[in-house]
């Protein structure tokens, strides 16, 4: 399903259909639809205040929905990792696990196996006695991920798990996320890293609570109405902007000094920038 097709609650496994959330006069989400298929990672991207955390809160049952429908499994089968990692700093790694296991009523016999498997995969099996506050940022996020995985969730909701995490831990986190999806979980991942979103099965692009695009990274690139091309040199007359528009066509400038740029290849980042520019222009008109 793409964002352009009308979805009905019956069409989706888990997710939200046509959801609107308001905080007083602020429309945090407007008619947003997202389905979360089991076995897939769905990334949500967007700038500050785009509505990402509100969407996760609505799916987790923590934010009241004004209109629309949210379809989720029993709360005991929903794992949530908040942006703060979800780790208690004054509890040890093992105590964090015990605490969450109790909250989810996980039986002792299955807890031992899950604890060993998850902490070992996250490389945390040797630090069971260390306080949460004494873990490195990357270790804390990996523990937060393990806590969210503890109930063996059907749906896993992750709020920017890799923000502030070093590149090695980021790769490890991604392996854990990919394994969770391969094990059958429907994964929702909020991220501000578009290279990360590029690896997801599908991406929802939000801007001020509105859907700008939804589909595979390739779908998002091809959803732009005109051609999108990139070049390594800045044309005359274009100042600081990285993207500009002529009619329905977009051109992306990839500065030469960015070593990883490969002019000619249009990626998700280019497409998201173009979508945001198009919306900004539409708002001005
Ligand atoms: N509890 C609240 N009360 C009032 N307004 C809120 C509340 N929570 C969020 N908002 C507003 O709703 C909009 C969406 O916020 P949200 O936190 O969902 O965005 P976000 O995409 O997660 O942003 P960021 O990446 O900056 O965290 C913003 O305008 C925000 O100010």
Automatic annotation (TrEMBL):
<dbReference type="GO" id="GO:0016887">
    <property type="term" value="F:ATP hydrolysis activity"/>
</dbReference>
<keyword id="KW-0547">Nucleotide-binding</keyword>
<dbReference type="Pfam" id="PF00005">
    <property type="entry name" value="ABC_tran"/>
</dbReference>
<feature type="domain" description="ABC transporter">
    <location>
        <begin position="7"/>
        <end position="233"/>
    </location>
</feature>
<dbReference type="InterPro" id="IPR003439">
    <property type="entry name" value="ABC_transporter-like_ATP-bd"/>
</dbReference>
<dbReference type="GO" id="GO:0005524">
    <property type="term" value="F:ATP binding"/>
</dbReference>
<protein>
    <submittedName>
        <fullName>ABC transporter ATP-binding protein</fullName>
    </submittedName>
</protein>
<dbReference type="InterPro" id="IPR017871">
    <property type="entry name" value="ABC_transporter-like_CS"/>
</dbReference>
<dbReference type="InterPro" id="IPR027417">
    <property type="entry name" value="P-loop_NTPase"/>
</dbReference>
<dbReference type="InterPro" id="IPR003593">
    <property type="entry name" value="AAA+_ATPase"/>
</dbReference>
<keyword id="KW-0067">ATP-binding</keyword>
